[in-house]
């Protein structure tokens, strides 16, 4: 009888059974998996599901083990519970689970601990292991009996006492040597990882201590294991991402972990061998990769999923927050976390929370299956109806024979009825052609009359407009240009005059300041001269007189030099201004030239479109329209260009509207994509590429809800749009129903600032430029204005002659403007040359003055030298030089002031003259405009009459084209009708001779009667669709299907009920299991604290989900100490670390992962606490021979006993100052 090992609840962590019979027992797991996966849209039947299970093999396992000895996944156990129930119903044997409960061994649900029977334990070859297993079996049985009691009246203190006694016996029992053969780490290799260039650490299968000074890279080993086996960088508290773990100065890093893979629990030993090598390589650019290799170095996989499979198989819970703890994590868990957070971490650590989630998923799956069952029950009614329908099949087969004969007679009448209808259609087509011919003559006469009226009004308007434009161009426009020029000159003159005033004020203040300085210096000079006269004779007086004369001349020359320098500076500014004015004039000349060329192009386009209005939309538009008219492949004739259907009611808005609508004015609309493709090909052939084609249905929707108040003009309201389809397309694409038109720009801006409802945009007119405008308003009430500038000739205007006249006038005005600008450019260039010549003359004068100044200064220097020889001090000379400088400075300022006064007078005169000239020009403009007003009034009157005449003429032109098109279509229809009559008569004669038709029946009535007969026959044949024999077979099949479906639904009900009961049993067991693990954790915690002489307890409240610690340190190890229990946060550093170790060891007892990690756990411990903690950890590790411990400490291990055994390895990290070279750690 073999041993069966299986994970209790961890979902994917499946250990393979050790015997064939054990593996066969797990086949029952496929039951629930099949229920979770629908087949062909429905669930498998119970019979199909039971075929997946070797029931005989399951019976053998149940006989030998009993359900209590087989620990399986909850889903699989639910399915097995169903099979066990069937087995009990078939036999009279007592409940196997109850009978076998005494042989069960309770283990933590978080691990893969084996359940063994007493008989299997007795055959263990190791006698020490036999005693240990026997002791554990007896204690576990007593714990289970006391903890899992249904009555719940056992004393928890007694249970804890039993666990403590068992733990003491277990720790004192002899241990087996060796360690785990699979799932533990053999070796860790680091390359460019954290502070290590290269490091290799061999590890033992049980206890491993890594020690060294701070900074030697001890924690890097634990961090490397975490990230290599799939953990996240953030979980290590060493960096926020993998690239933070790369050694400084390097771009890539590599971590390698070698896992043992031996024994009966090896993972795919045939592929990997005795070792599994996991290599993770990552770089600073974020790239990361895995390589999972066999013992001989062959790469088996590079996918993370394979690593996850290995971790699940071996129980490597790297992401378990209680499995690998850093110092910060442990301190946070004990001191800073709340009771609820401790409870959550505790449940995650022992993986009870995972089992809770699994049972919740099972309950949800059962609810889903119930929903499917209800839908299958509703489907049974349909199967019953199908069975009833099959009973009616035979009777319906005999009713169709007579109806076939009647249908043949109706077909003959139908053939000749269709001939009669085609004859009636031909007669109607002949009458329609005759009526349309008369209509064409009538419409043609009206079109000729409208054209004659339009031509008369056009001639009249051309005469008036020519007279008006001639007077305006000859008298008014030159004055307006002259007025603008005077405005610019007046503005420049005002600026110069203000500048002169500011300069004069500055010079006046400077003169006052210099005069004050001169007065003070002269007083001082008189005092010094009086003193000098007393000591010297008349020679010195003569030298001083000569020096004074030279200083006066020198001051005049320097003043003149300053004046010329200032004039040169002014000339530089004037030359720069002249150059800027010239460039501005040249830029303006270029702009006007471009505008003239554009106006000429517009004039040419207007002249070309005068003879054919279609040319306004495109040069080749007439060719395209003829191609569309000739092509009969369109499902529905395209509509376009849109401009043909648009007539403006207010011509002043035409320019703005054309800019808003843009290319849509030239666009076409079709109702299908096939027509769009055909139209696009015609455009390519006619060289009309670039014209938009809109595709849409003729949806005449209501747009009134999107319009603003009725007293506002919108683009839609100022346009007459003849086609409703075109109107809807413009509404959809340009929102013309909500685009408001307000002539005054300021009123429009104020209107939009209020954010009016149902208004998308607003436009205003530019009063200075007809046809131009502004887009006014912005979002959220923000004021903004954007110019609207029309480009090209108008496409919506109905008065082409007026547009041509306007374009010619624009060209003439631009020509005049260009000529004036050319003259101004030449004048500006000449003025610049004159200024340059005058500047050169001033430069020559300045050089001569500087020569004179130099000579005077040389002579003055000689006199000063003579005076300095005859004078004990140079005080007088310094004062005289200072006075001379002040006088020269004053002279310069006075000269500048005189120049400024003259310039100010000249500027004032210029301003007055310019203002007088501007007033004269404005008066002349007003006089001319008054004279032109009468002509303007006449022109507007005639223009309005001509627009109306143009509308009338265009209406009759389009009407005539439409009537002619209707006539052509009617003639084509007549020919088709005649051809159809001939074709139908020929076909009908070939079918049968002509028959008389009933007077009360036409083709439509006969068609309905035939359709009813044929439908009745078709319905019967469709309903029957087979012979009587086939109908009998179908009936029997329907009955069998109905019965089978009912049987399956009943069986599925029973299965769901059994699964629900089994799930409830597992949930109750989970609750007891949780209580058992809690009791063991409490007991182990008390036991661990007692090693130091401490008292304490774990307070676990599963209802409120809280876990609290209470620790009472005793004085001098006296257990009867009066000290009270403390919260962990109030403990000293050593006490806190010792409590952490006790808590971890108690939790590790309930965990299954073969690897435990703890980093710097003894930093705050004193020597006593550390020694006791280390001894406890070594004893705990020895008692768990199949677990590997990796413990990191910066302290020496000399005072820790029992470190020389085969089960303990101590690794010392090299000092950080010598870790630059590659190194390898050897066992101590």
Automatic annotation (TrEMBL):
Q: Might you name a Gene Ontology BP term for this protein?
A: double-strand break repair via homologous recombination
Q: InterPro entries in the record, alphabetically? A: P-loop_NTPase (IPR027417), RecF/RecN/SMC_N (IPR003395)
Q: Which Gene3D superfamilies does the record match to this protein?
A: 1.10.287.1490, P-loop containing nucleotide triphosphate hydrolases
Which stretches does UniProt call biased (Acidic residues)?
A: 147-158
List, for all copies, the residue spans of the domain called RecF/RecN/SMC N-terminal: 185-1194
The entry's keywords: ATP-binding, Chromosome, Coiled coil, DNA damage, DNA recombination, DNA repair, Nucleotide-binding, Nucleus
Q: What is a single cellular component term in the Gene Ontology annotation?
A: nucleus
What name appears for this protein in its UniProt entry?
A: RecF/RecN/SMC N-terminal domain-containing protein
Q: Which organism does this sequence originate in?
A: Saitoella complicata (strain BCRC 22490 / CBS 7301 / JCM 7358 / NBRC 10748 / NRRL Y-17804)
Lineage at the top is: Eukaryota, Fungi, Dikarya, Ascomycota, Taphrinomycotina
């Amino acid at each position: 009888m073999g041993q069966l090992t299986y994970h209790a609840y961890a979902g994917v962590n499946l250990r393979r059974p050790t015997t064939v019979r054990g593996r066969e027992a797990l086949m029952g797991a496929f039951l629930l998996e099949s229920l979770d996966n629908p087949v062909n849209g429905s669930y498998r039947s119970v019979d199909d599901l039971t075929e997946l299970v070797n029931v005989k093999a399951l019976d053998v396992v149940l006989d030998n083990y009993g359900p209590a000895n087989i620990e399986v996944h909850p889903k699989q156990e639910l399915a097995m519970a169903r099979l066990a129930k069937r087995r009990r119903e078939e036999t009279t044997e007592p409940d196997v689970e109850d009978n076998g409960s005494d042989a069960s061994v309770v283990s933590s649900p978080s691990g893969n601990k084996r359940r063994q029977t007493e008989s299997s334990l007795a055959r263990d070859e190791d006698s020490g292991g036999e005693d240990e297993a026997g002791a554990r079996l007896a204690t576990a049985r007593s714990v289970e009996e006391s903890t899992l009691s249904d009555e719940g009246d056992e004393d928890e203190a007694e249970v804890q006492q039993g666990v403590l006694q068992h733990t003491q016996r277990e720790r004192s029992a002899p241990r087996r040597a060796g360690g785990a053969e699979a799932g533990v780490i053999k070796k860790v290799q680091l390359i460019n990882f954290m502070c290590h260039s290269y490091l290799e650490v061999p590890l033992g299968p049980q206890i491993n201590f890594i020690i060294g000074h701070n900074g030697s890279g001890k924690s890097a080993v634990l961090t490397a294991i975490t990230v290599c086996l799939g953990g996240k960088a953030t979980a290590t508290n060493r960096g926020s991402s993998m690239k933070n773990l790369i050694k400084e100065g390097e771009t890539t890093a590599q971590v390698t972990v070698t896992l043992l893979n031996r024994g009966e629990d090896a993972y795919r030993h045939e592929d990997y061998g005795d070792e599994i090598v996991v290599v993770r390589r990552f770089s600073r650019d974020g790239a990361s990769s895995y390589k999972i290799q066999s013992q001989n170095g062959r790469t088996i996989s590079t996918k993370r999923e394979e690593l996850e499979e290995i971790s699940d198989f071996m129980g490597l819970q790297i992401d378990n927050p209680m499995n690998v703890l850093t110092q910060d994590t442990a301190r946070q868990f004990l001191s800073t976390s709340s009771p609820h957070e401790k409870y959550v971490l505790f449940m995650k650590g022992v993986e009870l929370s995972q089992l809770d989630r699994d049972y919740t998923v099972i309950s949800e799956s059962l609810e889903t299956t119930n929903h499917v069952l209800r839908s299958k029950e509703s489907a049974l009614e349909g199967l019953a109806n199908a069975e009833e329908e099959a009973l009616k099949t035979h009777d319906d087969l005999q009713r169709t024979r007579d109806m076939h004969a009647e249908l043949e007679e109706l077909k003959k009448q139908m053939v000749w009825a269709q001939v009669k209808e085609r004859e009636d259609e031909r007669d109607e087509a002949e009458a329609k052609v005759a009526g349309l011919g008369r209509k064409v003559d009538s419409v043609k006469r009206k079109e000729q009359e409208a054209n004659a009226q339009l031509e008369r009004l056009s001639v009249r308007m051309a005469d008036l407009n020519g007279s008006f434009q001639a007077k305006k161009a000859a008298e008014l426009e030159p004055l307006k240009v002259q007025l603008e020029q005077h405005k610019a000159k007046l503005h420049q003159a005002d600026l110069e005059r203000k500048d002169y005033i500011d300069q004069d004020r500055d010079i006046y203040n400077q003169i006052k300041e210099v005069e004050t300085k001169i007065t003070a210096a002269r007083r001082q000079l008189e005092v010094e001269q009086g003193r000098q006269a007393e000591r010297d004779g008349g020679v010195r007086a003569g030298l001083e007189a000569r020096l004074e004369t030279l200083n006066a001349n020198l001051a005049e020359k320097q003043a003149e030099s300053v004046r010329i320098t200032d004039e040169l500076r002014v000339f530089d500014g004037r030359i720069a201004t002249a150059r800027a004015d010239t460039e501005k004039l040249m830029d303006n000349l270029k702009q006007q030239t471009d505008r003239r060329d554009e106006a000429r192009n517009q004039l040419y386009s207007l002249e070309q479109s005068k003879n054919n209005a279609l040319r306004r939309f495109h040069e080749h538009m007439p060719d395209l329209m003829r191609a569309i008219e000739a092509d009969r492949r369109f499902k529905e004739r395209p509509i376009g260009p849109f401009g043909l259907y648009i007539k403006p009611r207010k011509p002043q808005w035409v320019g703005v509207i054309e800019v808003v609508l843009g290319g849509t004015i030239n666009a076409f609309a079709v109702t299908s994509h096939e027509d769009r493709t055909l139209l696009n090909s015609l455009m390519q052939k006619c060289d009309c590429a670039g014209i938009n084609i809109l595709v849409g249905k003729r949806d005449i929707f209501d747009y009134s809800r999107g319009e603003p108040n009725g007293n506002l003009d919108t683009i839609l309201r100022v346009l007459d749009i003849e086609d409703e389809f075109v109107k809807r397309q413009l509404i959809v694409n340009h929102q013309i129903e909500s685009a408001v038109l307000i002539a005054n720009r300021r009123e429009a801006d104020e209107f939009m600032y209020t954010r009016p409802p149902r208004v998308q945009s607003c436009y205003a007119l530019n009063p200075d430029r007809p046809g131009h405008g502004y887009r006014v308003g912005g979002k959220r009430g923000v004021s903004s204005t954007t110019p609207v500038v029309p480009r090209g000739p108008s496409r919506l205007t109905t008065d082409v002659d007026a547009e041509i006249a306007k374009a010619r006038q624009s060209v003439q005005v631009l020509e005049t403007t260009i000529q004036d600008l050319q003259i101004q450019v030449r004048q500006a260039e000449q003025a610049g040359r004159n200024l340059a010549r005058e500047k050169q003359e001033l430069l020559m004068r300045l050089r001569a003055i500087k020569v004179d100044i130099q000579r005077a200064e040389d002579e003055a220097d000689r006199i000063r030298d003579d005076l300095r020889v005859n004078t004990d001090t140079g005080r007088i000379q310094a004062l005289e030089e200072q006075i001379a400088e002040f006088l020269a400075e004053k002279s310069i300022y006075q000269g500048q002031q005189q120049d400024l006064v003259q310039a100010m007078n000249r500027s004032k005169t210029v301003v007055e003259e310019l203002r007088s000239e501007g007033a004269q020009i404005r008066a002349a403009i007003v006089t001319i405009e008054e004279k032109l007003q009468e002509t303007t009034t006449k022109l507007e009157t005639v223009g309005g009459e001509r627009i109306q005449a143009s509308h009338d003429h265009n209406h009759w032109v389009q009407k005539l084209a439409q009537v002619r098109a209707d006539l052509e279509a009617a003639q084509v229809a007549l020919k088709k009708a005649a051809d159809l009559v001939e074709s139908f008569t020929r076909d009908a004669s070939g079918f049968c001779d002509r028959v008389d038709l009933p007077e009360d029946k036409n083709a439509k009535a006969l068609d309905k009667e035939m359709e009813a007969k044929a439908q009745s026959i078709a319905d019967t044949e469709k309903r029957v669709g087979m012979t009587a024999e086939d109908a009998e077979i179908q009936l029997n099949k329907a009955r069998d299907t109905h019965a089978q479906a009912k049987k399956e639904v009943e069986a599925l009900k029973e299965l769901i009920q059994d699964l629900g009961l089994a799930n409830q049993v597992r949930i109750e067991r989970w609750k007891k299991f949780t209580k058992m693990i809690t009791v063991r954790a409490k007991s182990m915690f008390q036991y661990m604290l007692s090693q130091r002489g401490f008292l304490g307890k774990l307070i676990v409240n599963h209802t409120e989900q809280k876990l609290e610690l209470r620790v009472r340190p005793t004085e001098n190890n006296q257990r009867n100490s009066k000290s009270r229990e403390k919260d962990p946060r109030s403990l000293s550093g050593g006490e806190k670390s010792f409590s952490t170790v006790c808590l971890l060891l108690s939790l590790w007892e309930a965990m299954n992962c073969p690897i435990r990690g703890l980093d710097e756990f003894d930093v705050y411990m004193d020597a006593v606490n550390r020694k006791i903690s280390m001894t406890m950890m070594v004893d705990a590790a020895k008692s768990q021979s199949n677990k590997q411990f990796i413990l990191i400490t910066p302290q020496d291990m000399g005072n820790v006993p029992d470190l020389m055994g085969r089960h303990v390895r101590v690794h010392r990290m090299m000092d950080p100052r010598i870790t630059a070279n590659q190194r390898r750690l050897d066992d101590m």
